[in-house]
Amino acid sequence: MTEEHNGDVRLCFRGMYMQGRIVPGLMMLLLLSLPAAARVELSGGRSQTTHQDWTSVFFAELVGDPRPVWKLDWAPAMGLGHFDARPDLPGIRLHNDVWVGAVGVRLYLWRDAFFGFQGALTDGKTDALSTPYEFVSTLGWQGRHWQVMVRHISNDDFHEPNHGETMVLLGLAF
After folding, report:
1. Count of domains in the chain?
2. Phi-psi category of residue 70: left, alpha or beta, with phi > 0 → left and psi -120 to 50 → alpha
3. What is the pLDDT of residues 60-119, one digit of tens each?
């Protein structure tokens, strides 16, 4: 290895260390800004990436009270999710577990339908979630104690490969 390469490795490890401190810090900051009456959601489901390859996924989320903006309501939202590892496909690396920590907003559209958008940091890497940052888009429907969502997580083509993960989640809310 060259000296320059060793510096790159040290920089990479320093970045992972900082990322490991930033995600919990951002989550804690948002947690402190949420009112005591925040909605807690626990959701699970199946996620697909390229070639119809599926895995199990789980999310725990906190959603604040809705606040009016024009004729719509929005709420602060944060979540922590986990993707199970799965066997690699030819030329596609999927064998790592991936954790996702996300912070953003949920916009309530019509009745109990909503759209969510979050920025996320990841721990773990696959060809589906290939960068330390990702974007989370969610379209869902919720009741008082349940929710169903379709969610997509991707890096928006900032880095290749960018297969992303698309999932269907069902959950309970408290």
Report:
1. 1
2. left
3. 999 998 888 888 899 999 999 999 988 877 877 788 889 999 999 999 998 899 999 999
SS3 19: helix
Domain at 27, CATH number: 2.40.160.20
| Cα distance from N-terminal residue to C-terminal residue, the chain | 53
Count of other CB atoms within 10 angstroms of residue 159: 11
- Kindly provide the residue ranges of all beta strands, DSSP E only, lying in 12-163, ordered along the sequence: 39-49, 53-63, 67-69, 72-83, 98-108, 113-123, 133-142, 146-154
pTM of the model: 0.76
| Domain, as residue range, for 10 | 3-173
